[in-house]
Amino acid sequence: MAAGVASACALAAAAGVVGAGVGLLRAALDADCPQSIFARRRLNHFDDHDDANVPVSEQTRRWFEDTHQSVVIRSYDRLRLHGWRFDPDTARPMPHCYAICVHGYTGGPGEMAPWAQHYATMGFTVFTPAMRAHERSAGRYVTMGALERRDLKQWVNLIVSRDPQARILLHGNSMGAASVLLAGADPCHAPNIRAIVSDSAFVCATAQLTHSMADALHVPRALARPAVGVANLLLGRLADASLADADVLGAVRRLTIPTLFVQGDADAIVDPSSARRLYEACASNDCELLVVPGAGHVASLATDPRLYWSTVDGFLRRIPAFAA
């Protein structure tokens, strides 16, 4: 009898894990699910865990809306991906210099307006793509960088096909930061990628989802981890993707591009130690780390804009490809 009870309990526990994994997939990774965080975002129901809460001034918002030009490409798996292009906003544009600014989880190109405007005034031609399953881009499943890194390669290829002399900066926030690091660490990346700015990247997609699920449901991570595993198995079947391919910490050990890592030490979404761990693991001979006191998730710019831009601008000016 005891064995039967134990077996029944094990089956119930397994069923609970599977159910939790299905729920996680639908809530966090399936943009078409009516109960997902993406549906809540479309209804403007935000909470503290939305990366999209990036303050954008009215002047910057008007600049973004008045100057953007629509661009459409195809992903490697034939999804229609949409983005915006901005011409240099200065009398002295930087020839052949481009910046690709990548938004975070549940966000969109509009939240990158402060970065796009700054780089445009520096003389860059700027692209702000919508990642797959976000805003105007097609796709159903979000893969936390696993497939998004391949989409970034298509945006780079678009630029290089039009300008073989292109010198490209990749800037990403949160999931976008993870994606640009993964793209830059790809051994087949275009040599035109000359620098990366990573703001608030996580170290590993599976660990980040485990942390977020445990935090949201107030359960131990040991209970959340199997559910993330189930969600990953389903993601493999439904989207031909694996969260294991979004191991950012492993990727930066192969990253040789000059990289600036940024994070706030009050980040409540991504572990505040993440930027330092990525910085210390990075294989590049030219890395910098900026930790902004008191800043939350993707809030370093809003917390101390002078420190933020002086660090970013100084980093870029040291790189011959972007030296004025």
From TrEMBL:
Source species, domain of life: Bacteria
InterPro entries (UniProt xref): AB_hydrolase_fold (IPR029058), DNA-binding_regulatory (IPR052920), Hydrolase_4 (IPR022742)
Signal peptide segment: 1-20
Location of the Serine aminopeptidase S33 domain: 100-210, 246-297
Pfam families the UniProt entry points to: Hydrolase_4 (PF12146)
UniProt keywords, alphabetically: Signal
Protein name as it appears in the record: Serine aminopeptidase S33 domain-containing protein
Biological source species: Bifidobacterium choerinum
